[in-house]
């Protein structure tokens, strides 16, 4: 049985480099989120899972995407995507520039429509669940909290230092830079390793 979904009206995205950055930013994060999500949901993925921005930078990027109409925010503070991301992908190793990500030009009022067709039975489509964010997001947030609590640094400062270190050393996983930062601060790494093991990021 085929189910034809109602057409979705999308904002038209221009064909330029900054618009491509905007759609990649949203696509890489929202694949782990539902149709609506909070600012905290998307910034945590950018900061902790992907390691692209500091917390402050991520907040500014979200506001840039709202101001440029790629995202809309309702009265409850939930965000929705207003552009079609079905054909958007980012190449392996792609890392956005914070400056460019905060300089997205606004979309014009033009819209396009798309209709999706599913080969699943209608009841299966309705019951299909959205995948949850990866455990790396929660683990990274927990490591930042532990380092901040032990060192006396603010959580935002821990995240900023970790992001700078990850970029400088070209580290793949955010938790690597967090461990290096904790070591440089002279902290006991045992609780951090225990957290990584208990969350399944590392094996004992």
List its salient traits.
204 residues, mainly alpha, 2 domains, two-stranded antiparallel ribbon, two-stranded antiparallel sheet, 9 helices, 49% helix, elongated
Description:
The chain is elongated, with a radius of gyration of 19 Å. The chain is mainly alpha-helical and 204 residues long. Helix content is 49%, strand content 9%. The N terminus is likely disordered. A two-stranded antiparallel sheet has the order 1-6. It has a two-stranded antiparallel ribbon with strand order 2-5. The protein folds into two domains: 121 residues, no CATH class; 64 residues, no CATH class. The chain contains nine helices and six strands, in the order ββαααββαββααααα.
Amino- and carboxy-terminal Cα gap: 47 Å
Low-pLDDT regions: 1-7, 111-134
Number of helices: 9
- Helix and strand succession? EEHHHEEHEEHHHHH
Task: Report the radius of gyration as a whole number of Å.
Answer: 19 Å
Write the layout of secondary structure elements.
Layout: E1 3-4, E2 8-11, H1 17-30, H2 39-49, H3 55-67, E3 71-73, E4 79-81, H4 98-101, E5 111-114, E6 117-118, H5 122-127, H6 135-151, H7 155-169, H8 174-184, H9 190-198
Antiparallel strand pairs: 1-6, 2-5, 3-4
Helix pairs in contact: 2-3, 2-6, 6-7, 6-8, 6-9, 7-8
